[in-house]
Specification:
Layout: E1 3-6, H1 20-32, H2 40-47, E2 69-77, E3 80-87, E4 96-98, E5 102-108, E6 111-117, E7 124-131, E8 136-139, E9 142-150, E10 157-163, H3 170-173, E11 175-177
Parallel strand pairs: 1-2
Antiparallel strand pairs: 2-3, 3-10, 4-9, 4-11, 5-8, 5-10, 6-7, 6-9
């Protein structure tokens, strides 16, 4: 496996009022449950206003692993989970598609999202987009929506991901890893 997963559940950060993290999690929950079928674009839009807030994860520990990107659980709802993923320079996900819907946004640093075509049976790159702080992306569950997230920069990055699967089902219900 290419990532480390921390099972510590992180609750809302205690501040003078309601934390930005708690507000973001509530907005994500409303976006997920706004209709009978979650819309990843709506979830990404719910993430977007919080991504550039440097205090969003105040008090939440999200350490990096020098060997692989690391997932940290921020919250769970009915049929979905919210993760912070930290990326050291040079770390990347495998080339993959999703069995579940997903949305992501960049909170710190910047990442590159690369896209692939699998028409020949082998993943072939078709393009890439830089994702700076505040950028969002999303996808429906679709075996042809193949991508990879990478930190090709020189500083650590942190992205927030929402997956249409519970945290304990991430491996089985989310990624379809492809050979590049």
């Amino acid at each position: 496996m290419l990532e480390t997963v921390t099972r510590d559940r992180v609750g809302p950060v205690a501040t003078a009022g309601v934390s930005q993290l708690a507000l973001m999690l509530a907005d994500i929950d409303r976006a997920v449950h706004a209709t009978a079928r979650p819309a990843p674009a709506r979830v990404a839009a719910a993430l977007a206003p919080y991504l550039s807030d440097p205090d969003l994860l105040r008090g939440v520990l999200c350490p990096c692993d020098p060997a692989r990107y690391t997932r940290h659980l921020l919250g769970e709802g009915d049929g979905y989970c919210v993760l912070a993923i930290v990326w050291r320079p040079g770390q990347m996900s495998p080339v993959h598609a999703h069995k579940a819907w997903c949305a992501l946004g960049v909170h710190r640093g910047w990442l590159v999202e690369s896209f692939f075509d699998n028409a020949t049976g082998s993943a072939r790159p078709t393009g890439c987009l830089p994702r700076a702080i505040g950028a969002v992306s999303h996808a429906e569950p679709d075996a042809s929506a193949i991508h990879r997230i990478a930190n090709v920069g020189v500083v650590d990055s942190l992205s927030i991901h929402v997956y249409g699967a519970s945290f304990d089902r991430l491996g089985a219900d989310v990624n379809v890893v492809l050979a590049a």
